[in-house]
């Protein structure tokens, strides 16, 4: 812990020793990098949702599932397939908003991977487009004025 404090102090001294325009420029670049990274992460997440929906849509099976557990990280369901097998995806169900323990819900699943890809029937990635857009817009609404202000102070 003391090593980290010493390293942090040395880093602060090095940054403070930089000329003011250079410090402001590096701060601007850092702000733009964070906003760009957040944008990229959101787009990759949305792309992954579209891929999962495509996989389920290619080979769709339907069933009625019982919600076993609802936690912050995932919602666990259990359902039977026509072959009599009982499935409970360990990673949870896709698009679980509004579900509560004990609910019965119609689900769609990938016939080849019924323990991996399961979603609530009628829900898909496009339900999440506005939250993704809001996060991206929020990042740039904060980053753009901040960078403009830093660049104005730099010159």
Automatic annotation (TrEMBL):
Transmembrane domains' residue ranges: 29-51, 129-147
Keywords, alphabetical: Membrane, Transmembrane, Transmembrane helix
Protein name: DUF3592 domain-containing protein
Source organism per UniProt: Crossiella cryophila
Organism phylogeny: Bacteria, Bacillati, Actinomycetota, Actinomycetes, Pseudonocardiales
